[in-house]
Amino acid sequence: GLHLSSVSIIQWQSLATVVTAASALIGALVTFLNHAQSQLWQTVVAALCTSLRECLAAAGSSSRAWDDELPRVIFSLAVACIKTCQQVTTTTLEECDGTLRGLMDLYQLALQVSAAHSATPTAIASHKYYLSSTVHKLLRSTTCLLPKISCRNSVQSALLQALDPVACSLEAHQGSLRTATPGEVIELWKLCQEIVKCAATCRTQHSVELHEPFDMMRAILSRLWSPVVGALKPPGGGLISRELIDQVLEVLRDGIQGAASLEKNTTQGADPWLLELLPQLIPLLIHVFQQQGAGLVCLTACIRTVAGTSTLKGTLDSSHIQRYDASVERGLWSIGEAVLQVHSMVAQGGSSKSLHVAVEFFPLMRDCMLVPLPQFVSADKLQTLMNILHNCLSGSAGDEARVALGFAKFVFTFPTMPINAAGPRAQLQKQLAELVDAMLSSPGWSGGSGLMLKLLEAANGAMPPSHVIDVATTLHSILGLVGDVRFRILLEEALRMSENFPRSGTSDTAKLSFVTMLLSDQCKGDVRYFKRIIKGFCGGKKKGVVS
Predict the structure, then answer these.
(1) Is the CB of residue 267 less than 8 Å from the CB of residue 283?
(2) pLDDT reported for residue 249
(3) Which of 4, 188, 353, 421 could form a disulfide bond with 426, CB atoms 3.0-4.6 angstroms apart?
(4) Whether the Cβ atoms of residue 259 and residue 301 lie closer than 8 Å to each other
């Protein structure tokens, strides 16, 4: 044991050398690691961690040593621990226990050092990143080890042990989120994301042995719920960094999706924990959307998770199945009401609002139609959705443009998609397919020909030239999915709707030639040639293909 409460600078440098040598010894043990050596490894790591904690207590009087040596000492030991962890292939708790305990001890020490280092005025900026990187690597190594351990209680205990100091730090920041440095808090949330992803993986790995609900994800999100609410709805109101908001929402989304990974493998039919969380979760997500235009990825995850549980009833008797199905349908209805609010806010916000939220909005609407949510089996709601899509096809670029094009393709193909839902939802899906088909068959801007013209206008300059290939690829896919006859009808109607498209003076003969060439065998078989025809007719870089 080393007692380092009054070490000199020279002794600090010597300590770094000693720990480096000890780390090399640990690395050498990897080749011969078995149960006995794993316990020896744990003892060595524990002794070094104790010494390093004494260094931490003494750092206030040795600022130079703190800046120059301690981050290097921590990193040196971490490298050895991670190297050892990577060699572990066993699946018994007894053989992994020493490695796991050593990693957790060092991880918590690194967290403590990183937090203290950040609060030190003389701290070197590069060392701050150095320590943060070390913490992430240690946690990642721990989360790689946990799925190999067969005892789920030990796994859950380790994850909660890893999460607790991070959650405490997040709670300590809650009162100052609007003034705190976003980067420090975001790093903490990234650690939470690692833990949540590991929990999802472990739940899937352990599902084969479950005979009762396994509440790991529920326990983790319960521990994080207060920091989540504090970040998404900070005390006293006001806005915080959008980057921080997005990171918190990623953690929440991964937690919801992690619940889905369990529900797909479990043989139990108990109501999923997510249904109990919805009454608190949905108003929070609506608040975030109203304030920041964010949160829709979590609503989408809720739809997928809740809708995916309704057919997984396991061995329940009929009365339990009825109650289970009823709770799922109530959950979907509450999500549908929330999505209806989002739909209304986007529609009322005009083009700017549509473009701002397009990347998250259209995947959400796609899932609403696939489930489907009963609130959206409505001709009026569909028409409003088409108006929003029209807005996004004019003037969008980048991810917004690609998502809008993808949703346009989805709308054209939806009526012919197979019905995968069961029970009452199968009938809803059939009704919605009929409504979409009727809408696409209607004339004018509200129908399929109007949507087709919007796609052509996107290639004609409504979107940047870099997206012409994306538009052409979308139209080529639609042609292959709806067939020659339907595509020709929609295309000819679209061209008749605008006399000046693609430019003033374009003759009917040129338009007819354009339609004929797009439907030729060469165009249907070669998307690159199809793109050339689109570019030539719509005034792109390769002009003159169609005269």
Answers:
(1) no
(2) 93
(3) 421
(4) no
326 contacts: CB under 8 Å, gap ≥ 6? none
pTM score, two decimals?
0.80
Per the listing, tokens 């739909």 go with: 343
Structure tokens at 351: 């083009």
Instruction: Give the whole-angstrom CA distance, residue 25 versus residue 110.
Output: 20
- The Cα 60–Cα 63 span in angstroms is 6
Alpha carbon distance 20, 397 (integer Å):
52
- Convert the pLDDT of each residue in 484-511 to its tens digit: 999 999 999 999 888 888 888 788 888 8
Q: What is the DSSP string of 268-325?
A: --SPPHHHHHHHHHHHHHHHHHHHHS--HHHHHHHHHHHHHHTT--TT--HHHHHHHH
What would the two tokens of residue 217 be?
């994800």
* Dihedral of alpha carbons 94, 98, 103, 105, sign: positive
3-state SS assignment for residue 241: coil
Name which of 328, 318, 392, 321 is nearest 354 in CA terms.
392
> Pick from 77, 84, 113: which is nearest to 100 by CA?
84
**CA gap 529, 169 in Å, rounded:** 58
Contact indicator for 436, 444 with CB cutoff of 8 Å:
no
Tokens linked to 362 = 């259209």
Q: What is the pLDDT of residue 466?
A: 85
What band does 127 get if pLDDT is binned at 50, 70 and 90? low
Query: Residue 495 CB: number of other CB atoms within 10 A?
Result: 23
Residues 409-456 have pLDDT tens digits of 999 999 988 877 667 778 899 999 999 999 999 988 889 999 999 999
C-alpha distance from residue 394 to each of 157, 293, 409 (Å): 52, 20, 16
Cα angle: 393, vertex 398, 399; to 5 degrees: 85
